[in-house]
Amino acid sequence: MTEIWANSADSHVLEPDDLWLQALPKSLAERAPRSERGDRFEVLYIDGGQVSRQLNDMMDAIRPPGARDLSVRLADLDKEGVWGQLAFPSMGFWSVLIQDRELAREVVRTWNDWAHSEIMGKTDRILTPACLSMANIDDAVAEVERVAELGFQAVFLPTQTREGEEYGLDRWEPVWTAAERAGLVLAFHIGTGGDTVVYRGPGGAVVNFVETTYPGMRVVSHMVAGGALDRHPGLKVLIAEGGASWLPAIADRMDEAYRQHGIFVRPKLSRLPSEIIREQVYASFQHDASAVDIVRSTGYRNVMWGDDYPHLEGTYGHTQETLRGLFEGVPDDIRDRITHGAFNELFTVPERVAP
Ligand code: MN
After folding, report:
1. Measured in angstroms, how far is the CA atom of residue 223 from the centroid of ligand 1?
2. Which fold has domain 6-29+70-346?
3. DSSP secondary structure string, 244-291?
4. What is the 241 CA–ligand 1 centroid distance (Å)?
5. Ligand 1 center to residue 260 CA distance, Å?
6. Ranges of each domain in the chain
7. Which residue numbers in the chain have pLDDT < 50?
8. Which of 61, 64, 165, 193 is most deeply packed, by most CB within 10 A?
9. Is the pTM of this model over 0.90?
């Protein structure tokens, strides 16, 4: 059976445990993201606080051979049928919670320099988005400009914001301007910027998984309705790992509000919300068959597949089975759009060289 090759718009790198310890002076390093393994839980410390706990079993389930070794990782990808990857951070995600200006600036700079030399300096098949300070906008803008010079193609932003810092607000305008000017994609990854366990009752594992989707939807509604994407038509937004079939649905909801509640709507936009979404908003999914259906049925085409390597939710070990299941009976042009076309609109990876 022929392999289906795909680029992945949602993967991760695992940083060395001592990344910040090695790079930063002790006073900063001891407040940088750090994980400690307890009896049942992995405890994460950052900026003097304890921010999350994950079950050890969850961490132990991350087992692709190349999770921590780039050359083995490329062999994993060849075996799975994945060519290019947009690889988000792992521990680096926690940098977005840092509120101390100096610590945030140095932690993200260290992460970006590591990704630049140890990942992108060694393969052009894996792109990492750069991390940005969420503590200070001037520092975020300076880092956007610095990483653009280094050759980054995207910046990572959390889907959850602190109250009063929602993405439709003017505070972000300098970041949007800098990213648009530099041609960097705004890559949001779900489950970041806040607690991912919000409910501990019946069905919690499923409820919490679904809950991670909603902040990604809010990113889109704020950035579209608040006018950011209308003011910056060159900006492209990716919501990674949150599924994609909700996008045409909220586009319809937003058009309805924009039209039916028009007397209350401000700012006015130069395009309908659904048009802005079709032109500037992309989403990636791993397993959802409905994400394929919407490309066939709604005309919303910014749908990208992702392997979520090396995570538990990912497709390692069953990538081909997943892709065959998703694309059985699906026209070639739609399969190609989801496996490559939308990805290649946002990111540049070299052409695949067949062995
Ligand atoms: Mn992911």
Report:
1. 21
2. TIM Barrel (3.20.20)
3. STHHHHHHHHHHHHHHHTGGG--S--SS-HHHHHHHHEEEEESS-HHH
4. 5
5. 36
6. 6-29+70-346
7. none
8. 193
9. yes
